Amino acid sequence: MTAERDFTAEEIAAGEKLFERAWGFHKGVVDLAFLPLADRAEIAFAGRSNVGKSSLINALTRQGGLARTSNTPGRTQELNVFLPQGFREPGPLYLFDMPGYGFAKAPKDKVDQWTALVKDYLRGRASLKRVFLLIDARHGIKPIDAEVMAMLDAAAVTYQIVLTKVDKISLLARAKLIAATGVIIGQHPAAYPFLIATSAEKNEGLAELRATIADLVD
After folding, report:
1. Containing H/E element for 97?
2. CA-based diameter of the chain, in Å?
3. Distance between CA 161 and CA 186 in Å, rounded?
4. Facing residues of 136 across strands?
5. Mind listing the pLDDT tens digit for each residue in 11-33?
6. Cys-Cys link to 144, which of 4, 23, 70, 102 (CB 3.0-4.6 A)?
7. Exposure b/e, 26-45, CB count within 10 A at least 16 = b
8. Is the dihedral angle over the CA atoms 112, 115, 119, 120 positive or is it negative?
């Protein structure tokens, strides 16, 4: 049994339509009091530092400079909010770029502050449709990822595994990773049963990710 799913041409087209408009930075949030109004669907991207989160968001939206990329762990220190732009009004979706986790160089008080912000956001945001949890295909699910999955399970927040950098491993290693990850997904009650394998560099899996997001908006 595969941990991936097939998409129809109609689903792919809906995803492309959602992301055909330009996206823009809306705001950075360091306190829940400054969150945007919960007046539309929201998705959030989470993952270990340097998992390729910013690169994936840029590739997803086809805008190379939308989310800032860095080789320095912990650069994203707030909830960064993006939304599609329109001539009259913004689009139907907020995209949240969450602070990376699992880095050791930042001061402990900063790590604790960001962790508390993320936990509070996840627990109290009814408009949050899904968290996309990014996993580096070269390393698979690490203990820190398992901790985040357990936290999402406890908060009853639906999340979906997105493998990044799948172009960096062999096809055989990829097949084994997808199968092993599928087994782990089945052990977590809040995890969506299908994963998406992506490569921001090769544009692989992005159409499927866009289609998934469009389905959540609908």
Report:
1. strand 93-97
2. 48
3. 12
4. 164
5. 999 999 999 888 888 899 888 88
6. 102
7. beebeeeeebbeeeebbbbb
8. positive
In which region does residue 203 sit, left (phi positive, over 0), alpha (psi from -120 to 50) or beta (all else)?
A: left
pLDDT tens, residue by residue, 70-96: 444 444 568 899 998 875 566 789 999
Paired tokens of 137 = 């295909």
Give the C-alpha separation, 119 to 135, whole Å.
19
Q: Which residue from 141, 187, 126, 185 is spatially nearest to 160, judged by alpha carbons?
A: 185
Query: In degrees rounded to 5, what are phi and psi of residue 43?
Result: -125, 155
Question: What is the C-alpha separation between 123 and 126, in angstroms, rounded?
Answer: 8
- Coarse DSSP helix, strand, coil percentages of the chain, rounded to the nearest 5 percent: 40, 20, 40
> Of 77, 75, 142, 74, whose CA–CA distance to 103 is shortest?
74
